């Protein structure tokens, strides 16, 4: 086995180390104060204050060279991007503003490898190199954003995207990379030295009723003879979106304060952020290749009326009463007397078997076709719509069609022939509409920083993060979740004095210890019948026959939808890490090649985790029906609770070697192995994961070789890298940890980025990415296929040859599921949705008159929307424009996005559910007005 299930020695060691270091925290400040004494040099920032210079002078000064930017958040040492042996992309506030970077999707304009699929049209988290990535706020790991809250990047002052696993100072993290965000309130350190309050006000308006206002102000103060500063930032938005009926409302408030010498020689930095994001998710449902290629939509409302009590939506019992399933003989008398409800036989959920062709599993798209319509549909039309010409045409087909495993397709699964057929599509109509997605997020940080001596620094950080999410989709999924995270971390660096080392050797060291605790709970109901709604029917609005009650509205099984998921977990992550930054031969003039750097890191982590699945409603064992006397008969089944807890640990290490060469060249090579916490996307560790033999800590590996270079005095920066990253802890296709959010793929590829600032007035940046991914194991999976793929036939009007009832319409009223044979899956080992080729370019120039412009473009190669490649999404080239004008303290900007009105799509974050895609926005324009004061 990879590790012992209860390594008590490791557990005690980490507990003792954590307690020991944190308990000595209180004694650390006085000791440093005595060590400094009266001769301590003043803070570097004080020199800025005394000179009368403020941050605005720095911002408006000469641009830093692209690779000369400090990247202390990458690996823990204050090294430039050129010296950092990782691929790192830095986006400053000017780029965020100029490129109009607000959402996760916007990030692809500036940062290679950040293409992100959608979750109900929302992008909260960020993918890096094709896999979900961690998100950090000022160097502290945040809660996973999932698709429950919009991540507003416009509220940030700068962004760093670091590729590969995190530094040993950060603890366990995802292999693809992470994003570190510095908020606008991060200016508080400079704000403490302003002579008077300074800030800005900004307004944005544009297409799709975009309306956003933001403002920030910072200033200095003196308290108890200590200098301090503050910064406050706020944002309000009330907009619509490209998708009709989906609005965007959000409020963000950031605040921070900095006080020098607040505790001995320590500087206090504290603050937080509060955000309320209200929106609603949407996919284009009933997606087919014809919809992507020609805008052809399969219309039709459900045939059977399921809202039997006419209360405006469908409850759990009503699905059984209005769409009966097959029955079974429970008392052995030869008469079927009980609904045969199971996970694959429910009123709107049916399992199909994968058919065979010539003794082998049939190829995708080549299932045998079976003429006719389902028996239940035949009976319904005979009793209710026999006089309708289209119904007569349907009845003329006879009884047939492919049968589910249960032997009967419930009538609630089919669409009404009177409303069905092909329709032209309005791409802005919503599908699979989530009514409300309301998320409240809060962060608080409290740091004590000692950095007067660059050769010896100490930082003690406390961080609290919170997410409360309420999602009501009425499809019938309804969710309420609460996630809490807090972390304490102490990081110290110490450079060994040069007089204690040979003249060819310099060593800077780093030690870090942290304790992080995450707890979360989720309650939800049912699944999503995303295909039931016709987005072209009455402008895409829902009817009582396409809406469902959920546990947020009504938890009763009699009229609503009971809770079907009720779980929580609590887990700790504690660890100790060390790093050494070793410079070799820096001053040896006898060597041709100087500037060799070796970066070594090692870390051990442990985690105590506990998970609970509480007793909840079992929709696979509950049913309702009317007996022969017309009496309502019901049975409510429950699932037994399950619990698990365990200790697990893991070791991480990294090694990088880089060499400064003539002509500004710096090649490097990095090997890293990282421990990863195997939680789900909602930061909850499931019971099945805790019970797995491998535990709830996994392993991932990175190999990266790259070349960085700066030319023309640093004005031209180039980064090229080849990488391979993979999980290494999975040993079988049945490993339950494959369901964790941590990627179970192998990714390898090339990435290149060029940034050129020939003058202060001009810049050009470009990137290219080519990467390939493969699943690690050919694990069995279930899949949703529509009626056409299952083998239903179109119903055609013989007099005109027109299709009056598309094959897909036989199943769009519910959900179907097939188990894909491993022989078929082995032919489809590529993850869906992430393009293999990505290219981007941006160029801008500002004239002496204050007028400036930006031209940018991004290209993505074609992708498949699902693993079995039933829908191909075409390649896309999206062009953007911006025009700016600056006059004194006034700044005007007009941004045009997708100015050529390219029609393009984005896959969802699921490989097994074709038919749901995101239609990306068409051409749109926005105007921004900003006043600095």
Alpha-carbon Rg, integer: 30 Å
User: What portion of the residues fall into strands of 2 or more residues?
Assistant: 35-45%
Terminal Cα span: 63 Å
CATH topology of the largest domain: Maltoporin, Chain A
Structural class: mainly beta
The domain count comes to 2
Helical amount: 10-25%
Mean pLDDT: 86
Question: Quick one: CATH superfamily of the largest domain?
Answer: TonB-dependent receptor, beta-barrel domain
Q: Which spans of ≥5 residues are poorly predicted at pLDDT below 50?
A: 1-62
| Principal-axes shape call | globular
Extended strand count: 49
Tally of separate helices: 14
Task: Fill in the keyword field for this structure.
933 residues; mainly beta; Maltoporin, Chain A; 2 domains; 22-stranded antiparallel β-barrel; 5-stranded mixed β-sheet; 10% helix
Could you characterize the architecture of this molecule?
This protein has 933 residues and is mainly beta. It folds into two domains: 45-49 and 51-280 and 434-527 and 564-778 and 829-932, TonB-dependent receptor, beta-barrel domain (Maltoporin, Chain A); 289-431 and 791-819, no CATH class. 10% of the residues lie in helices and 43% in strands. The chain contains 14 helices and 49 strands. The protein has a 22-stranded antiparallel β-barrel. The longest helix has 16 residues, at 8-23.
